[in-house]
């Protein structure tokens, strides 16, 4: 459900914009709940980076597919850890809404961690490509990361 250039936002851009608005509303309404506020602002920072830099145009649709795939093991592991309870949450610091035994805020925080890692990886990849282009005088499309 994408549009061609000049026709307006694509489907993944709308999802990103809606998530940004949702995180802003969560941060405002639940500003007194530390886990909700921190998770919402954390995710919001990287959403803004995606939208401002235009990075979303190259990989964000694949990001959402990857996010859905990664939510399956995240749900299983967090479900076990919170049901035993190996991990417990202070319900005065989160939304006090749970999926099975997992606080909804945990998924918000997971979104922030996931988008942060993808954003930093893609930025690092672009920096390496630009450096290789400047040093060698031609474009090298090798995307391996050398630390």
Topology of helices and strands:
Layout: H1 11-29, H2 34-53, H3 56-83, E1 98-99, E2 102-103, H4 104-136
Antiparallel strand pairs: 1-2
Our measurement of the CA-to-CA distance between the termini, rounded to an integer number of angstroms, reads 37 Å
Individual helix count: 4
Structural class: mainly alpha
Radius of gyration, CA atoms, in whole angstroms: 18 Å
In total, the number of strands is 2
Average per-residue pLDDT, rounded, comes to 83
Task: Give a short synopsis of this structure.
This protein has one domain (11-134). Helix content is 68%, strand content 3%.
Explain how this protein is built:
The protein has one domain. The chain has helices at 11-29, 34-53, 56-83, 104-136; strands at residues 98-99, 102-103. Helix 2 runs parallel beside helix 4. Strand 1 and strand 2 (102-103) form a beta hairpin. Strands 1-2 form a two-stranded antiparallel ribbon. It contains 4 helices and 2 strands. The radius of gyration is 18 Å and the shape is globular. The longest helix has 33 residues, at 104-136. It is an all-alpha fold and 147 residues long.
